[in-house]
Structure prediction request, 308 residues.
Amino acid sequence: MLNWLVAGVGDIATRRVLPAILSEPRSRLHAVVTSQPAKAQAYGVPGYANFTDALTDPAIHAVYIATPVALHHPSLLAALQAGKHVLCEKPTAMNYAQAQEMAEAAAKHPHLVCAVAYYRRRYAKVMEAKRLIDAGAIGQPVLAELNCHSWFNPTDGHRSWLIDPALAGGGPSYDIASHRIDLLNYFLGTPTRATGFRSNAVHTYAVEDNATIIADYPNGARGVVDVRWHSRVERDACRIVGTDGELNLDPLNGPLLRTPTGDLHLPAPENLHFPLIADFVDAVLDGKKPACPIAEAISTDWVTNQIR
Prediction:
């Protein structure tokens, strides 16, 4: 049984992380870190106002860091130092230098599992697409295109920290692009060079409202990610083109995978975080490799660092 501490009881934690932990058979929610005691009471567990104090609890085995990005770096380092396994929300850090330091700290604690919550790696259709690419089903991959467009302007205050660069690091380039850059890396390997541009085309908040990223990979493939928070027409596109065919995952969050030999219906579970939590538990208790170890996750931070 794995006893969890969840640091941060915001949107992603309440909608996905906490329900996943509560329903995973080898997991137990032991405590949360929150400045609002009522949030802890709602789950019937102790609530710590101070993260450092929580880490002194010997019954805690693993920490899920669900705080704003600015707190990922100090929280992860402190959790590892306290001997806790760590699953950290994405992106890993505010910049690549921080991400590197986090990965180096994890390497110094090889008995601890340290991973980043790129949960789309555990979509059934994403794993099947990866298998098909590796099996040569589309020949040599040459191009991957991923777009995510939506409208985000938190005038009501909900999730408004995402447009504060001091807390989030950046806008959609950090929030929604990070997932898609990670998928490029998952499909194609470690990027060899990257560039990108960010700007404010519609909204005037302090972070960008759009970004376009291009990355090259060792096998000759190129990936393009375009993310926008100023479109009332939602798009969630993902396709991988090879010399002999293509895989189409549009929409990425939907169940359909179009392959050269036919369409597959591979829906994700209702709670998208459940496979990620189950995967992490397997990594800790059974010694398996986690879906996205931090050593792999920081390649996304490296790409993000190239955006201008």
